[in-house]
Design goal:
alpha/beta; 2,3-Dihydroxybiphenyl 1,2-Dioxygenase, domain 1; four-stranded mixed sheet; 4 helices; 8 strands
């Protein structure tokens, strides 16, 4: 059931046809809470948001947040509930997002730091941060 009142920023079919390359659709419990992490920790920009849906942009990428209630009968939601944790086994990497600053912001705003920023043998400095829905974000820069 949709919670948005009034018209959306763009017709769904128009937005869908505008997409290319790889996109991410993340199911979230509360769009507003998830946007707080996206903006304050990852430094992303909100393109559009309402209680049902948001489009976020940062570091040359764009991704979407869909409130759980918008996927109430969708197979992805059923699978996510059965798995017990959203995004289990996935790393959402943001290349070019400073991991030290993101880690500092995560701690400042009470988000979980799974692994502190560190230089890795594969040539990246990265941190592992957990958003309110359990997704693991990995901001990284060349080390």
């Amino acid at each position: 059931m949709k919670k948005r009142e009034g018209d959306s920023w763009m017709q769904a079919d128009e937005y869908g046809r505008s997409l290319s390359g790889l996109t991410l659709n993340l199911l979230v419990e509360d769009v507003r809470k998830s946007l707080d992490f996206q903006v304050k920790v990852l430094g992303a920009t909100v393109v559009y948001s309402d209680p049902d849906f948001a489009v976020v942009r940062g570091y040359g990428s764009e991704w979407m947040l869909h409130a759980d209630h918008t996927y109430d009968r969708h197979p992805v939601r059923i699978g996510a509930n059965a798995a017990g944790q959203r995004g289990a086994g996935a790393e959402l990497r943001l290349h070019g997002c400073n991991p030290d600053k993101a880690e500092e912001a995560a701690m400042e705003h009470g988000y979980q730091v799974m692994a502190s920023a560190a230089n890795k043998p594969h040539g990246l400095r990265e941190a592992f941060l957990v958003d309110p829905d359990g997704y693991i974000w990995v901001p990284d820069v060349p080390s």
